[in-house]
TrEMBL record:
It is a multi-pass membrane protein. The chain crosses the membrane at residues 21-40, 109-126, 133-156, 168-190. Keywords: Cell membrane, Hydrolase, Membrane, Protease, Transmembrane, Transmembrane helix. One of its GO terms (biological process) is proteolysis. It comes from the Bacteria. The lineage of its organism: Bacteria, Pseudomonadati, Bacteroidota, Flavobacteriia, Flavobacteriales. GO terms for cellular component: plasma membrane. One of its GO terms (molecular function) is peptidase activity. It comes from Phaeocystidibacter marisrubri. This is Exosortase family protein XrtF. It is found in: Cell membrane.
Length: 209
């Protein structure tokens, strides 16, 4: 009579799910971060360094909304080229109503947090059909939230003489941006995540052995 193999698999149940999440999350995050890093390095390493197209795009949209709100706007793309003190960082500068409002550099365009959002959703897994619309929608929501953040920072500098700027820039609006991403994650996990794509089996329907 042969003995039953009672040894448990090395990874099973929740632990296997956690490991798969970490592998997919880290792989997605690292791959996208490397690609984006190379993209930025290309513009930083030009003979005349310039801000990348994504940063230009974000700056122009911020200026466009400020225009709609009635501000007189001036946009200085690659403003670092005109300031001798600017050393390594490339950026655009916005003026509102003839006053300096904001400088927007690569770290302000929200691409890094977008990569974090993508890595989590892909890492968690779920319905691929749902991903085809959820990921673009999530990126759009993060982009809109970031444009709002930049616009409000510019307004704080111009209309409120920069009072509280450091707090709002470093903590408050950054926290709001991450809350937006967290809520998108919760939406995905609860509605379309991997656990929702697995059919639940009613124990009463399980055939007897």
């Amino acid at each position: 009579m042969s003995k039953e193999d009672t040894s448990a698999p090395l990874l099973s149940g929740p632990m296997k799910g956690v490991l798969l999440f970490l592998i997919r999350f880290l792989a997605t995050y690292l791959i996208l971060s490397v690609i984006y890093g190379q993209f930025i390095s290309h513009y930083d390493s030009l003979e005349t360094p310039e801000a990348d197209p994504v940063t230009h795009f974000v700056t122009r949209q911020t200026v466009g909304i400020a225009d709609l709100l009635g501000y007189e706007t001036e946009l200085y793309e690659d403003a670092h080229l005109y300031i001798q003190a600017a050393e390594e960082q490339t950026y655009d500068t916005i003026h509102l109503n003839d006053r300096y409002a904001l400088s927007i550099e690569e770290g302000c365009n929200a691409v890094n947090v977008m990569i974090l959002f993508l890595a989590f959703v892909i890492g968690f897994g779920g319905k691929w059909k749902a991903m085809t619309w959820f990921l673009p929608l999530g990126l759009l929501i993060v982009h809109i939230a970031n444009i709002g953040r930049l616009l409000l920072l510019a307004i704080i500098n111009v209309d409120y003489d920069g009072r509280g700027y450091h707090f709002y820039h470093k903590y408050f609006f950054t926290a709001i941006l991450y809350v937006v991403i967290f809520l998108l994650w919760v939406w995905w996990v609860n509605k379309y995540g991997m656990s929702k794509s697995v059919k639940r089996i009613d124990p009463s329907e399980t055939p007897e052995s």
